[in-house]
Every structure is written in structure tokens, then in C-alpha cells.
Automatic annotation (TrEMBL):
Gene Ontology CC annotations of this record: plasma membrane
InterPro entries documented for this protein: 7tm6_olfct_rcpt
Biological-process GO terms, alphabetical: signal transduction
Organism: Chouioia cunea
Location(s), subcellular: Cell membrane
Name of one Pfam family that matches: 7tm_6
Entry keywords, A to Z: Cell membrane, Membrane, Olfaction, Receptor, Sensory transduction, Transducer, Transmembrane, Transmembrane helix
Membrane topology field: Multi-pass membrane protein
GO molecular function terms listed in the Swiss-Prot or TrEMBL record: odorant binding; olfactory receptor activity
Protein name, per record: Odorant receptor 73
Main location: membrane
Keyword Protein transport: no
Amino acid sequence: MKDVLNRHKSAETMEGCSSTFYLEISKVIRLHKHALHFVDLVESTYASMQIFITGLTLATITLSEFEAAVNKTHQDIRFRFIIYGAGELIHILFHNYPGQRVQDHSLMIYQSCYDSEWYRKDVPNDCKKLINLMMIRSQKPCYLTGGGLFVLGLENYANILKASLSYFTFLSSVQ
């Protein structure tokens, strides 16, 4: 959005090519619409699998922590469980990080539209309306979920770590 407005920075170029400017803004909005559709498609495809993967990974992290704590005498087995648990932590991070990126980029669209100086006098009113509508839509962030129960992101990753440590503490106290 900023690039489109910067290309048409001066009033002389804006007057002569307002239809070109409008077409470029329309193209940016179409690309945004396609990106939203793609996020919805990814969400509908992987949401149910994400909840299964997260639950299974939470259980395996907890059990590997527990087994590493129980096998104090067998250092080789303990080391295997520690490595396995670290691998699972990296695995679940790779499942949550794309969700964080989608959220971050989704929120950057509003800021990018606002920073584009869409309110200048030389910007045609039709373009102002289009940019304003895009700003209104981009206030609602896009995100990926795990079955609609939780939002994938770094906050969810931290919650998974807390939950696995809580379950580990419970298992240790029961034993």
C-alpha cells in the first residue's frame, strides 16, 4: 500500500493517473482478499489435525520429562528421553510459529495502510474509501487455530510448556 502511494507521491502524477492509481489499489485489495482466502483454506484443512498433534505432543513431552526424571541410574536412557523431549518441544514450536506469523502479518496490514498517508488531499476519494474499507477489515486479525479451541502462536507454545510441566509435577508427586 505504501509503495503504491509513494509511486504517486506528487500531485502532478496523481491527477494524470487517478484511474491507474485506483487500479493499483484494487490490485492490492484483491491480493489481500486472496491472502485471507488462503488463510481460511489452511485453517479449514489443518485445524482438526492441529488439536490432535498438540494433544499428542503434550502427552509425549510430559512422559519424556517423567521418564528422564525416573531413570536417574541409567544415564543413556535418561539422555534419550531428554533429547526426545527437546525434539518434541522443537516440533510443537514449528507447529505454532506459522500461526504467530499469520497473526503478526495480519496486524501489520492495518498499520501499513495507515502509514501510507491515504488521507492526503491528492488521493482520489474512491481510493480513500477502498483503503478505509481495507483498514476496517484488517482490524480483525487472522489466525490459525487448533480445532477452534486455541489460537496457534507463541502464547500457545508457552501454555503447552506450562501444562507439560504441571502434568510432570503431578506425575512426580503421585509416584
